Amino acid sequence: MTTAAENRFFTTKPREVYYETIELYHSQIGTLRYVFNQFFDKTFTLEAGAPRDASTAVVFKAASGDVSPLTQSSNPVSSLQINLGRVGQGVKAELRKISGTGWLEQIQCLYRVYDGSNLTAPMNVPPELFISNVSMDGESVSLTAEDDNPGGIAVARKYLAQDFPGLEIGA
Fold it and tell me: What does the pLDDT look like over 46-75, one tens digit per residue?
């Protein structure tokens, strides 16, 4: 016969650990990588199709803060709410490095989730997101990332003179 405590012990599932990470990229500040709710930096291997450092083990800085789950409402735009705690001050300093026309280029955000038993590949294919809103308050920074490029720079293709045969370009 088993006791109630033994029964509870043998029927309890092992605790699963997941690591939520974000990667922010802009040409003027480079790449910033964070892993949430950790005390120490962690090393993860990026997926083979990553835009930077594909299939490479990279270090993500430990950060307090949270990421809301990827949401999609009646609007077809998916969004992710990111709240950075103690690293907010450093992110603010990095964002201040963006100057001039650099603000026309969007900040890319990649959200990855890793299973604690396998740090060699993310569980999901990271969606390509862009930072659409930045809110700075004291030490903290809140970011909103959406899959819709708010800059709208690459909406239509460029038309060139070669696309219009017979067109004469005046001198």
Answer: 998 899 999 999 999 998 888 887 776 666
The predicted-structure confidence for 86-115, as pLDDT tens digits, reads as follows 777 788 888 888 888 888 888 999 999 999
- Specify whether the CB–CB gap between 85 and 63 falls below 8 A: yes
Token representation of residue 46: 């990026």
Long-range pairs, 45-50, Cβ under 8 A, ≥24: 45/119, 45/120, 45/121, 46/122, 47/112, 47/121, 47/122, 47/125, 47/126, 49/125, 50/110, 50/126
- One-letter amino acid at 85 equals G
pTM recorded for the entire structure: 0.76
